[in-house]
Design a protein that fits this description.
Layout: E1 7-10, E2 19-25, H1 29-34, E3 49-56, E4 62-71, E5 82-88, H2 91-103, E6 107-108, H3 113-120, H4 126-137, H5 141-151, H6 154-178, H7 189-218, E7 220-226, H8 232-240, E8 258-264, E9 267-273, H9 283-298, E10 301-307, H10 314-326, E11 331-336, H11 344-353, E12 357-359, H12 368-383, H13 395-414, H14 421-439, H15 445-453
Parallel strand pairs: 1-6, 7-9, 7-10, 10-11, 11-12
Antiparallel strand pairs: 1-2, 2-5, 3-4, 4-5, 8-9
Helix pairs in contact: 3-4, 4-5, 5-7, 6-7, 6-14, 7-13, 13-14
The structure holds guanosine-5'-triphosphate and magnesium ion.
Length: 459
C-alpha cells in the first residue's frame, strides 16, 4: 500500500498569510525540483540546508522569489527526500508551483499522506502521527498540551508500560504451561489477578481522562436557555460584545439556535442562543423548542436565564425542574434585567435552587464580566489536570483501551470458574494485541487509511 511516488501539497493556509509553504516528498522530490531552480544545482546540495532563489516555471517564467529547504531522507518529516518551498501567500503563485510539479510527474498528496509516510518509515508511531492532526484541531490551550504530550511519545510510553505488565505475567504463565506436568507453580492465580487488576485500574484512569480532554479538544458548548423574552439573545450579544442576534420585545423572536465562538480562559467557547422554552402550539417555534431541549442534554455549560424583575411563571418552573433534576452541575443561573425593580421573591426562589446565581443586565452590560469569570471558573474546574498525568484525547485510543478494559475484566471475572492457565494466557495475548493497535505495531491497511484520511490535506 505504500506508494513511493513523489507527492506535493501546500502545508500552510494557501492564502490569508504573507507566506505559503509547499511540501514535495518522495523518491524524485529533488530531481524534479532541479529544473525549477536553474541557478541552484539542487541535486548537489546537502540535506538540512535552505536557499533564497527564484522559482522558474517550465515555460521559463519567473513564478516567485522563494526559500527552498532541502531535506534528505531519512532526516525529514516523512523520512523520504523532501523539498519545501516557501513562497508568497498568493493563491495564483501556489497554484502555478503545484501545476509545474504536477506536469513534471508529481501527484497531489492525499489527506494525511505525509504523516502516513512518516509512520510507515518509522519516523513516528501511530499515536504521534494522530497527535499532529489533533494539535491542529485543538480548540484550547489545554487540548494543545494534551496532544503535544502524545506527540512527544508520552502516551506510547504509557501504553508500552501497560503492555509490559501483561507481557511479563503472560510469559510466566506460558512458562508455567511448559512445566504443567511437573507440578511446579511458576505463577499463582493470586499473582495473576493482582497484575490484571493493577493494569485494569491504570486503564480506567486513562479512560476517565477522556471526557474532559475531549471537551477541550472540541471546544466548550455554552447554551443560553430560558423562557421567551427573558433576554437570551441580549445576553448572547453582551457576551459577544456585539449586536449579533436580533433582540425584540416580542416573545418567540429567536426561532432557531444561533451560535458564535468566543475565547474565554484560553478555551474556545461556542455560545448558543436558543428559542425560548415553553409549551406552544406554534409549529415552527415548537421545533426550535425541541431542539433546545436536545441541546440541554449535550451542552457542557448551561446559562439558565430568568427575568428577575418578574414573578416566576410556569415556564420558568419547568426549566428549573428540568435543570435541577438532571443537569445541576452544568448549570449557572443568571438573573437578568437587574436594571429594573427586582422581584425579591423571584431572586429568593432562584437562590434556593442554585448555589450560583449571577444577577446581570444584558441590556446595560451590567455584571457581564462577573458572569464571564464564573464561566471561566467552570472551565478551569474541569481543566486542572496534572501535566505528568497522561490524558487520552483521541477517540480511537479511547475505543481501543475500552476494548482492552473489557477483555481484562472478563478474564478477571472468569477466575471464579477456575479456568485453565492456557485460557488465561490466550486472553492476555489477545489484550496485548489489542493494546498494540494504539501505537500501530499491529494494524491493517484499512485502519491506517481510515485514520489518515481524516487528516487535512498537507499533513
Ligand atoms: N430592562 C431590560 N430589558 C432587557 C434586558 N435584556 C433584554 N431586555 C429586553 O427584553 C426583550 C427581550 O429580549 P431578547 O434578548 O430578545 O429576549 P430572548 O430571551 O432572546 O427572547 P426570545 O428570542 O423571544 O425567546 C427586549 O425588549 C430586550 O430589550 C435587560 O437586561 N434589561
Ligand atoms: Mg432571542
Amino acid at each position: 500500500m505504500y506508494e513511493k511516488d513523489t507527492i506535493i501539497a501546500p502545508i500552510s493556509s494557501v492564502s490569508g498569510g504573507s507566506v505559503s509553504l509547499i511540501r514535495i516528498s518522495g523518491i524524485d522530490a529533488i530531481n524534479i525540483s532541479d529544473v525549477f531552480f536553474p541557478t541552484l544545482d539542487i541535486t548537489e546540495k546537502k540535506g538540512g540546508t535552505f536557499y533564497f532563489t527564484k522559482f522558474i516555471s517550465n515555460r521559463s517564467d519567473i513564478v516567485d522569489e522563494v526559500m527552498v529547504y532541502v531535506f534528505k531522507g531519512p532526516k525529514s518529516y516523512t523520512g523520504e527526500d523532501v523539498i519545501e518551498i516557501s513562497c508568497h501567500g498568493n493563491v495564483f503563485i501556489v497554484e502555478e508551483i503545484l501545476q509545474n510539479y504536477l506536469s513534471a510527474g508529481c501527484r497531489i498528496a492525499k489527506p494525511g499522506e505525509f504523516s502516513q509516510r512518516a509512520f510507515l518509515n518509522g519516523k513516528m508511531d501511530l499515536t504521534q502521527a494522530e497527535a499532529v492532526a489533533d494539535i491542529i484541531a485543538s480548540k484550547s490551550k489545554s487540548a494543545v498540551k494534551n496532544s503535544l504530550q502524545a506527540l512527544e511519545g508520552k502516551l506510547s510510553e504509557k501504553v508500552s508500560s501497560l503492555k509490559q505488565y501483561l507481557i511479563d505475567i503472560g510469559s510466566l504463565l506460558e512458562l508455567g504451561l511448559d512445566f504443567s506436568e511437573e507440578d511446579i507453580e511458576i505463577v499463582s492465580n493470586e499473582q495473576l489477578k493482582t497484575t490484571l487488576i493493577k493494569t485494569l485500574s491504570e486503564i480506567t484512569i486513562l479512560l476517565n481522562s477522556f471526557s474532559n480532554s475531549r471537551q477541550f479538544q472540541k471546544g466548550i458548548e455554552v447554551l443560553i436557555a430560558g423562557k421567551p423574552n427573558v433576554g437570551k439573545s441580549s445576553l448572547m450579544n453582551a457576551l459577544l460584545e456585539k449586536d449579533r442576534v436580533i433582540v425584540s420585545h416580542i416573545p418567540g423572536t429567536t426561532r432557531d439556535h444561533i451560535h458564535e465562538d468566543i475565547i474565554i480562559d484560553d478555551t474556545l467557547i461556542r455560545l448558543i442562543d436558543t428559542a425560548g422554552i415553553r409549551f406552544t402550539k406554534d409549529q415552527i417555534e415548537a421545533e426550535g423548542v425541541n431542539k433546545t431541549k436536545r441541546f440541554l442534554n449535550t451542552a457542557d455549560i448551561i446559562l439558565a436565564i430568568f427575568d428577575i424583575s418578574k414573578e416566576i411563571e410556569n415556564d420558568d418552573e419547568e426549566i428549573i425542574n428540568h435543570i435541577t433534576k438532571e443537569m445541576k452541575d452544568r448549570a449557572i443561573f443568571v438573573g437578568n434585567k437587574n436594571d429594573k425593580k427586582t422581584n425579591e421573591e423571584t431572586v429568593e426562589t432562584l437562590k434556593k435552587y442554585s448555589d450560583i446565581m449571577v444577577s446581570v443586565s444584558a441590556k446595560n452590560d451590567n455584571n457581564i464580566d462577573e458572569l464571564r469569570k464564573i464561566i471561566a471558573s467552570h472551565i478551569t474546574k474541569e481543566n486542572n489536570h496534572d501535566p505528568e498525568h497522561i490524558v487520552i484525547s483521541n477517540e480511537r485510543h479511547f475505543n481501543i483501551l475500552n476494548t482492552v478494559k473489557n477483555q481484562i475484566s472478563t478474564t478477571i471475572d472468569s477466575f471464579d470458574n477456575e479456568p485453565g492457565h492456557e485460557f488465561i494466557a490466550m486472553d492476555i495475548r489477545a489484550a496485548i494485541n489489542t493494546l498494540s493497535e494504539i501505537t500501530g505495531e499491529i494494524t491493517t491497511d484499512d485502519i491506517l487509511n481510515n485514520i489518515f484520511s481524516n487528516f487535512c490535506i498537507g499533513k
